[in-house]
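Form 7-S
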Amino acid sequence: MKTFYKAIMISLFLLFFTNGIQAQRIQSKLNQMELMKQLVGTWQRTTDEGTVQILETKLFGEAVIETFTYEVKGEKSPVFMELSGFDDRDDKIKGIIVFPNGKYVTWIGQFITEKTIRGNVVDNFNPEVILWIHEYVILNPKEIMSIGYDSKGIKTGESKFSKVE
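Output:
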């Protein structure tokens, strides 16, 4: 008799409580490198102090090369150069950022939406050691927002860049 009551209780539970369960909608896999092409071009912003920050993004085959420079009173100074490519083993974009003094950092990231790429800047591609987090949000074809976060995910700043080429 106990078995019969258990079977009835389980049946009632399934009948009443699974009515609200629905299958999750499967999100199609984002084409990471195709989405990177949205960032190709020359972007710039002028700071309150008059410094022009220039971000140039170019394709190198299926990879992306990015250079970042400051221009003060017509004189350009390099800030960093970055090379990024796609690793299909984990569906991530990975890159190396090299500074003029020879130091470098690496990053691992991906588009989390069709308009937002988020990357963890890490120590030698070690995802366990996050140095900082960076995000680009494509506001429209002519504007992007660059957002920085510390290693704990606390926002440290943001800058809007406009496309010039």
